[in-house]
């Protein structure tokens, strides 16, 4: 077996609404074999990976995989399950897998779920699948691999790049609220929400957290000064920079004292309850290794507490206990530490609810102060402290005391957060009992620190007591209940007309007064920015461009062209559109990305209809059975969408049935674009007033206008705004490269992007209706389509034009020079043996040749691959925009 290719689909995709890895697996000599052909294989495999016995497989119950292997299943399917089991063994809790035939003998696609916020560049999923392949082949060959060393490496890599406990909890809480979440790279940085409602959170620090407040909190001495000025009790402290000053501070304050670095965190360099000068000197040296500015402060007796304040309210409180072990009269301190660390809740850093205990220099020194060593055997029940400071990051534990907090203590903590200026913070306290009123007298209680970006794990999963959903409290602060986190999203897919429809919808919404973000094949546009609003020039019909639009905080509505390629290669760049538009589904891109049939195209483009919000709007072409049929797919029906059909005529049987059932439809009736809902008819505007429709002779543009009107009306856009926008949708300004007419000398030149049979037939029909003359075509076609589709497109050209100039784009898309010309010419002659065809070397030669072939006033159709070279050439030739009414 071997892995031929890998791709990760990061958004909703045709397999799952969550990220997946898709791997092309070549079974090689195992092509015709199943598990029953290798006696003992299943038993050896399960002995190596016992967890496989619990896999459900298609049976829907534990043991389903074992049954499948006993009946006989192919080894690609087994590899899928092994990869899932290995994923669980490294801590990646995933359960979805699927193996499908990839169209060739012995070739399969293995689809494996990925954790939702796993970085897209993570090597872990690919490495796990490779290990699964080696495991299956190793068991087959009687040489099973040693899994644990490789699993340990992958486990460490996964732990390194996974979201921290606090950030993961925030992501879960946001998704429960329906707030979109996107992780930024490998950071604990999340984008929450879309467009103008987008917020950012980094662990427990929000984008509203005060930078000044963070600076104050980071400077422990300054924080104490600010708190003291607010009347909040704090320890007496001195800032020192050398050993002599540290000893002076000990004498001035009086023992016992606490020594800590001024800007330290997570208990690093902190020494507690020191009375002897030697202890203070050693503690100063440790603290100075973290920050050369060291704080010596009075020690406040009592218990350690952390109170989480969110938005001026106490969200949770925990009592903290320093790292320790409890003797049993038999085990050494080192053995007891090892026993505690076996708890799966303990991990390195902050990736688990608790941190592993250590026996480093600080812990050994603290043991010595208690008369213990690593090999000491403590008495049964004896508590041996490894640390004096009660930090989770040094192995401490927490007990939830949220319900015990006395109102006086709660008010003090809220005032402390306000004094520092923090929206979310952790207040560290020492006092005798958090459930009692604040004790009176100096040094009886105090706020030790106010922590910015506080860790949440002590509250989420305390060692004792109930967990608190503090992440939800932070999400509620950022998105108060009832406030939006999303903007309207219109997603447009189909074979032809996507770009024009997207541009029309964006123009309508902009005329309504919304700040619109648009992504289409020509780039990303933000209404009102730069020339034409273009901010990113590229083929922007995929998920990255959608993410770019939705991340812009100025955007109030998003209109996204959603092409087949982006769906297949990376998934969707959004979730839950409000409106999904499917213009039509006809033959195109066949032979690309394993898209072999039009049914494959239907399956891919259906994703846009499936991934709308519940009760969202679905705009479908009633004149295209494949597009209209999407409304009946179970995966679409479960969204309970409002279906809006559009079509050329009210006489359409599909439209008539839909309206009779109370549905909404858009069509042309008596030369007017009409919206119909039950018995009510709302005229939008006359066909002759639709800009770029050439008085209705460009039927495909009329269809795009109907689709755009349906999408805009679904978002409650007033009918008069729709009409005004469609009148002002000037093609040269708003829809460059699509149905634009230029005058070159005596000849009109029609520039269009038609590149498949249906599009070519539509543009050819328009040329005949508009000019009533045969015309000349100068054409190129994409080289990455299969030969049969290129030939069919060429035949459509021959139906419309008797003279055709063929040229090749600079990007041959894998074809040999001259190969596409030969294919196109062959298709032309098959359909029309007498067709006159000329091979031209490049775009310039093709257009000038076509103009030479054309008679005075005769139209020339120019099909292109890239628009900018066409614009440059037309400028050189002195072309001027032609009138839409010229015939």
UniProtKB/TrEMBL annotation:
Q: InterPro entries of this UniProt entry?
A: ATP-grasp, ATP-grasp_RimK-type, Cya_phycin_syn, Cyanophycin_syn_N, Folylpolyglutamate_synth_CS, Mur-like_cat_sf, Mur_ligase_C, Mur_ligase_C_dom_sf
Instruction: Provide the catalytic activity annotation.
Output: [L-4-(L-arginin-2-N-yl)aspartate](n)-L-aspartate + L-arginine + ATP = [L-4-(L-arginin-2-N-yl)aspartate](n+1) + ADP + phosphate + H(+); [L-4-(L-arginin-2-N-yl)aspartate](n) + L-aspartate + ATP = [L-4-(L-arginin-2-N-yl)aspartate](n)-L-aspartate + ADP + phosphate + H(+)
Please state every residue range assigned to the domain named ATP-grasp.
224-479
Source superkingdom: Bacteria
The answer to whether keyword Disulfide bond applies is: no
| Record-listed E.C. numbers | 6.3.2.29, 6.3.2.30
Could you tell me what this protein does?
Catalyzes the ATP-dependent polymerization of arginine and aspartate to multi-L-arginyl-poly-L-aspartic acid (cyanophycin; a water-insoluble reserve polymer).
Report the family membership. In the C-terminal section; belongs to the MurCDEF family.
Any idea what this protein is called? Cyanophycin synthetase
Q: Which organism is it from?
A: Actinomadura keratinilytica
Gene that this polypeptide is encoded by: cphA
């Amino acid at each position: 077996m071997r892995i031929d290719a890998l791709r990760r689909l990061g958004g909703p995709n045709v397999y799952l609404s969550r990220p997946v890895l898709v791997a092309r697996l070549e079974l090689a000599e195992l092509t015709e074999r199943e598990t029953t052909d290798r006696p003992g294989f299943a038993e050896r495999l399960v002995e190596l990976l016992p967890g496989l016995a619990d896999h459900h497989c298609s049976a829907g119950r534990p043991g389903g995989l074992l049954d499948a292997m006993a009946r006989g299943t192919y080894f690609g399917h087994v590899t899928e399950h092994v990869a899932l089991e290995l994923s669980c063994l490294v801590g990646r809790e995933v359960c979805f897998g699927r193996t499908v035939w990839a169209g060739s003998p012995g070739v399969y696609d293995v689809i494996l779920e990925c954790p939702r916020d796993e970085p897209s560049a993570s090597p872990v999923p690919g490495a796990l699948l490779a290990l699964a392949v080696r495991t299956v082949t190793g068991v087959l060959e009687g040489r099973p691999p040693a899994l644990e060393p490789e699993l340990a490496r992958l486990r460490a890599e996964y732990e390194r790049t996974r979201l921290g406990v606090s950030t993961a909890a925030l992501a879960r809480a946001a998704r429960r609220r329906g707030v979109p979440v996107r992780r930024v790279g490998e950071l604990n940085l999340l984008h929450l929400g879309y467009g103008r409602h987008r917020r950012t959170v980094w662990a427990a620090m929000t984008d509203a957290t005060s930078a000044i407040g963070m600076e104050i909190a980071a400077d422990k001495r300054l924080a104490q000064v600010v708190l003291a000025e607010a009347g909040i009790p704090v320890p007496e402290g001195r800032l020192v920079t050398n050993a002599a000053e540290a000893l002076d501070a000990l004498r001035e304050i009086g023992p016992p004292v606490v020594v800590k670095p001024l800007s330290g965190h997570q208990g690093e360099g902190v020494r507690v309850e020191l009375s002897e000068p030697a202890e203070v000197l050693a503690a100063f040296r440790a603290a100075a290794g973290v920050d050369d500015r060291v704080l010596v402060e009075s020690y406040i007796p009592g218990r350690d507490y952390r109170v989480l304040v969110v938005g001026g309210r106490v969200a949770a409180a925990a009592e903290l206990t320093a790292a320790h072990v409890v003797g049993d009269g038999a085990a050494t301190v080192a053995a007891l530490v090892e026993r505690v660390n076996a708890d799966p809740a303990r991990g390195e850093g902050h990736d688990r609810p608790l941190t592993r205990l250590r026996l480093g220099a600080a812990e050994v020194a603290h043991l010595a102060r208690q008369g213990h060593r690593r090999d000491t055997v403590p008495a049964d029940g004896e508590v041996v402290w490894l640390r004096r400071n009660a930090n989770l990051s040094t192995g401490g534990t927490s007990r939830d005391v949220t319900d015990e907090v006395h109102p006086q203590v709660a008010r003090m903590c809220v005032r402390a957060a306000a004094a520092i200026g923090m929206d979310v913070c952790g207040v560290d306290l020492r006092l005798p009992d958090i459930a009692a009123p604040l004790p009176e007298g100096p040094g009886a209680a105090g706020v030790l620190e106010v922590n910015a970006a506080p860790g949440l794990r002590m509250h989420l999963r305390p060692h004792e007591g109930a967990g608190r959903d503090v992440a939800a409290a932070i999400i509620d602060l950022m998105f108060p209940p009832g406030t939006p986190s999303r903007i309207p999203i219109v997603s447009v897919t189909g074979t032809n007309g996507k770009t024009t429809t997207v541009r029309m919808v964006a123009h309508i919404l902009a005329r309504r007064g919304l700040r619109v973000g648009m992504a289409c094949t020509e780039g990303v546009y933000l209404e009102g920015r730069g020339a034409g609003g273009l901010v990113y020039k590229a083929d922007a019909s995929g998920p990255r461009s959608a993410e770019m639009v939705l991340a812009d905080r100025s955007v109030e509505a998003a209109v996204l062209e959603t092409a087949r390629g982006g769906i297949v290669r990376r998934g969707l760049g959004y979730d839950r559109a409000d409106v999904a538009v499917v213009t039509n589904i006809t033959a195109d891109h066949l032979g690309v990305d394993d898209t072999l049939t039009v049914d494959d195209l239907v399956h891919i483009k259906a994703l846009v209809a499936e991934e709308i919000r519940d009760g969202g709007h679905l705009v479908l072409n009633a004149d295209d059975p494949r597009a209209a049929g999407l409304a009946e797919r179970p995966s679409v029906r479960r969204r309970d969408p409002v279906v809006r059909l559009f079509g050329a005529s009210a006489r359409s049987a599909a439209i008539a049935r839909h309206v009779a059932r109370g549905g909404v439809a858009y069509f042309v009736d008596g030369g007017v674009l009409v919206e119909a809902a039950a018995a009510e008819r709302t005229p939008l505007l006359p066909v002759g007033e639709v800009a770029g429709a050439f008085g209705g002779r460009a039927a495909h543009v009329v269809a795009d206008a109907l689709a755009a009107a349906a999408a805009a009306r679904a978002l409650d856009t007033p009918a008069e705004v729709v009409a005004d926008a469609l009148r002002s949708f000037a093609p040269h300004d708003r829809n460059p490269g699509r149905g634009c007419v230029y005058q070159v000398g005596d000849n009109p030149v029609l520039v269009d992007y038609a590149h498949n049979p249906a599009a070519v037939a539509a543009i050819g029909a328009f040329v005949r209706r508009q000019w009533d003359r045969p015309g000349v075509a100068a054409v190129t076609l994409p080289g990455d389509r299969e030969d049969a589709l290129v030939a069919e497109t060429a035949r459509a050209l021959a139906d419309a034009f008797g003279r055709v100039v063929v040229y090749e784009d600079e990007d041959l898309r894998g074809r040999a020079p001259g190969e596409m010309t030969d294919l196109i010419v062959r298709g032309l002659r098959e359909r029309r043996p007498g067709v006159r065809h000329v091979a031209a070397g490049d775009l310039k030669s093709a257009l000038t040749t076509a103009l030479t072939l054309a008679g005075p006033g005769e139209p020339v159709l120019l099909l292109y691959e890239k628009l900018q070279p066409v614009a440059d050439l037309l400028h050189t030739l002195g072309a001027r925009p032609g009138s839409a009414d010229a015939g």
